[in-house]
Amino acid sequence: MMKRTLAICNILWLLLLLEATTAMYDGRIVGGELTDIRDFPYQASIQLHGQHICGGAIIGDYFILTAAHCFEEPFDVLDYSVRLGASEHATGGELLSLRQIIRHGGYNTLTHDNDLALLLLNARLNFSSAQLQAVPLASTEDVLTPATLLYVSGWGYQSEQGEEGVSAALRFVDVALVDATVCRHAYRKVLPITQRMLCAASAGHDACQGDSGGPLVGYQAQSTQGKLYGIVSWGLGCAQADFPGVYTSVAAFRNWIDAQVGAWGWNTLLNSWSALQRSTER
Q: 0.70 cut: is pTM over it?
């Protein structure tokens, strides 16, 4: 009898999980305002076959940080591109091809745990323009509090129904940190909120479809320098009062991010040495 009861509970949980995952993905600006790329110069538009699908953040000379769920396997790196330095995702700025997509190896497609990916660009970025800048990464020493000013930006839907499609122009919205215990309780019947996630919300404000992978940037009191704290990951609906937006915590993955970026720098140095050797041998 006990085994039968557990089996029924497991079936009900799986049905609930399937219903939830169908409703919440892929990604989650509702209640926002139009803005200019110069105010969010790190913002990237991830494009598939020339169409905007996700956001991202410039974090270095060659790298964009985004969400792993933006890239469904099997994916071909040649199908994707990134537009940078533009207020509109369809025009302006620079449209760059990708050299490599590095999804976190622990990404779980069912729970969205470890939902992050690095995009290696085919060109080195020039940060001489006010429209194109990298955003610093938060570390474990950068503690989020309810007083931290948080902004999420992107070209996503402006309503949960999304009849108007993605926004042509960049938008942003302010949100506030939601206590982890409160967030876990809100999603207790949906999906687990892990230590590698953080939650943020504000009445009528949220990210939505098309904002996935986009930046959640925070400003501490008395600071004019924002840092990247989160990556738009998932949530149940858009701007629903009972369900905060869920973000991948950047601080939780600093070791992984630094290792990937550092390895690329080392490989570049090795390739330079190899080139010098080949040139000397001729």
A: yes
